């Protein structure tokens, strides 16, 4: 987080280092720095050099860039964002950051799509981060999580919890609640743009 300057990833004129979420347009937010730190810490063992990580709802690209630095040029960090304009601006943001060489070399990529479906092209993933609250854990994300992998995802509607999901080597799933949270909903592009 010290290497990737958050100021490059928030709207102009907003206080980049305040510890609170910020609106980034399109009924989306960039999470508060403490939530980014929490997720990075929870996923740390699954973000080693050469590993693959999926960032669902990659927004401005900040956390995807952090993930890319952690997995390095031998790994792959994949951001999926269903709002084209956010995906385009995240690429511009990343190009100004310390993660720019990884984007250029192809070990960091941003894609437009429905993150609830994951991104099968680079699966299985050692780590999956979801930046919006799902009513339940999407099966495609579980399917794309590598045995030994970990997913961090906010789950719930009005009452939400940050869930830590570990896929055991035998394919079974272990789930624990980390902390209560408040995220925007993981939804379709149309519903998000309508503010539903």
Automatic annotation (TrEMBL):
Hydrolase among keywords: no
Catalyzed reaction equations: [protein]-L-isoaspartate + S-adenosyl-L-methionine = [protein]-L-isoaspartate alpha-methyl ester + S-adenosyl-L-homocysteine
Keywords, comma-separated and alphabetical: Methyltransferase, S-adenosyl-L-methionine, Transferase
Keyword Transferase applies: yes
InterPro entries reported in the protein's UniProt record: PCMT, SAM-dependent_MTases_sf
Enzyme Commission code(s) on record: 2.1.1.77
Gene3D superfamilies named in the record: Vaccinia Virus protein VP39
Top-level EC class: transferase
Assigned protein family: Belongs to the methyltransferase superfamily. L-isoaspartyl/D-aspartyl protein methyltransferase family.
Name of the protein: Protein-L-isoaspartate O-methyltransferase
Organism: Salix suchowensis
């Amino acid at each position: 987080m010290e290497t990737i300057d958050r100021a490059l990833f928030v709207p102009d004129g907003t206080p980049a280092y305040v510890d609170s979420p910020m609106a980034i347009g399109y009924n989306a937010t960039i999470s508060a720095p403490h939530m980014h730190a929490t997720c990075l810490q929870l996923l740390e063992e699954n973000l080693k050099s050469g590993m693959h990580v999926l960032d669902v709802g990659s927004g401005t690209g900040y956390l995807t860039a952090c993930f890319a630095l952690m997995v390095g040029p031998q790994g792959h960090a994949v951001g999926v964002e269903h709002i084209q304009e956010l995906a385009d601006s995240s690429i511009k943001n990343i190009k100004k950051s310390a993660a720019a060489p990884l984007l250029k070399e192809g070990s960091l990529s941003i894609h437009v799509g429905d993150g609830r479906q994951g991104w099968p092209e680079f699966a299985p993933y050692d780590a999956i981060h979801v930046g919006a609250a799902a009513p339940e854990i999407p099966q495609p994300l579980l399917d794309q999580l590598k045995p030994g992998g970990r997913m961090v995802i906010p789950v719930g509607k009005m009452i939400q919890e940050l869930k830590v999901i570990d896929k055991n080597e035998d394919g079974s799933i272990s789930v624990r609640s980390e902390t209560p949270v408040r995220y925007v909903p993981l939804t379709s592009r149309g519903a998000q743009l309508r503010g539903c």
